[in-house]
């Protein structure tokens, strides 16, 4: 109730205020003497705010609070029990997330977000504790999202915590596998860190998702599992971990099993160890790839192989008839 005039003032004009306000208050104004009933609607080109509440002093029962703006609808109800305690629960519905992102880009141009489309977002939340330091528990589900050209079946997010520390988990579920992250965040400083794991059962299907259309020409195959840690802060991010590949490859080039230890940050992808079993032999190595020019950047590294059966290499019938090979390339 106290915040309603402030929320209304943020709506771009003209603002039309309708409804009914009845109650009593002393003069000069003293919040301790305020009591009454509120049934108000504030409308502007930017959205609509509805509020129905009744109470006295610092104890108010909110039977309806609804904000409809920028393509999102937030509904809540609950109770302000005192100046230091509240309990509210509600729902969030975003039928068109792309419209919300477009509106955010207009309001905060420096807050760059990737292009998104797809299905709607729905969620539930509970807020409790002191208004100055509330605790939030919530869950979001995004159906058939498309982010930066990548399509998945579902994204689910859960979070619990306060303004200075929050625990969260998220799952990206696709037909060919899933990626899950969990960790902790400091929302006030926009610092996040946690762990990740991935299970991809079909590389070809995931390539199709990234391409936005069947990528049959790539001839990808195999399964990937992995896990590690990651962190994000304003102006910097990093991730590291281990990935295992099974019967993976491109076209006729494939490995029975491979293990990769890596670390990545905005300017560098560092593969500290690569170990693979392929064509009857073993390949080990390491590499570093500067990311300033994307994947077109030169690669520096070392590759050593032994026991590779040259007759199994897909180099054509007359290229290598048989035997084995070993060597080192730097």
Descriptive report:
The protein is built from three helices and 22 strands. It has a 19-stranded antiparallel β-sheet.
Report the end-to-end length measured between terminal Cα atoms.
69 Å
In terms of quaternary structure, the protein is single chain
Helix content: under 10%
| Secondary-structure element string | HEEEEEEHEEEEEEEEEHEEEEEEE
| Average pLDDT figure | 83
Helix and strand content put the structural class at: mainly beta
| Beta-strand residue percentage | over 45%
Total of helices: 3
Q: What profile does the largest beta sheet have?
A: 19 strands, antiparallel
Low-confidence runs of at least 5 consecutive residues? 211-216
Features:
elongated; 19-stranded antiparallel sheet; three-stranded antiparallel sheet; 62% strand; mainly beta
């Amino acid at each position: 109730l106290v915040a309603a005039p402030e929320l209304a003032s943020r709506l771009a004009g003209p603002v039309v205020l309708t409804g009914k306000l009845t109650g009593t208050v002393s003069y000069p104004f003293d919040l301790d003497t305020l009591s009454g009933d509120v049934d108000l609607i504030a409308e502007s080109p930017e959205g609509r705010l509805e509020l129905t509440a009744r109470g006295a002093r610092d104890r108010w029962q909110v039977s309806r609070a609804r904000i409809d703006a920028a393509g999102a609808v937030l509904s809540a109800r609950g109770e302000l029990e005192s100046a230091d305690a509240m309990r509210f629960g509600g729902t969030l519905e975003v039928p068109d997330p792309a419209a919300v992102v477009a509106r955010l880009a207009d309001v905060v141009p420096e807050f760059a977000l990737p292009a998104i489309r797809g299905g709607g977002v729905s969620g539930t939340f509970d807020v409790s504790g002191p208004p100055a330091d509330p605790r939030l528990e919530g869950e979001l589900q995004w159906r058939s999202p498309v982010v930066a050209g990548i399509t998945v079946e579902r994204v689910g997010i859960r979070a619990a915590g306060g303004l200075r520390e929050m625990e969260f988990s998220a799952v990206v579920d696709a037909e060919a596998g899933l990626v899950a992250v969990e960790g902790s965040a400091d929302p006030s400083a926009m610092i996040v860190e946690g762990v990740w794991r991935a299970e991809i059962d079909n590389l070809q299907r995931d390539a199709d998702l990234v391409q936005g259309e069947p990528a049959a020409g790539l001839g990808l195959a195999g399964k990937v599992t992995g896990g590690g840690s990651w962190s994000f802060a304003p102006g910097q991010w990093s991730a590291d971990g281990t990935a295992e590949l099974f019967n993976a490859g491109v076209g006729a080039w494939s490995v029975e099993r491979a293990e990769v230890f890596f670390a990545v940050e905005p300017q560098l992808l560092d593969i500290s160890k690569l170990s693979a079993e392929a064509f009857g032999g073993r390949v080990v190595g390491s590499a570093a790839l500067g990311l300033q020019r994307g994947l077109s950047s030169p690669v520096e590294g070392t590759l050593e192989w032994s026991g590779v059966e040259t007759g199994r290499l897909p180099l054509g019938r007359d290229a290598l008839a048989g035997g084995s090979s070993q060597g080192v390339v730097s």
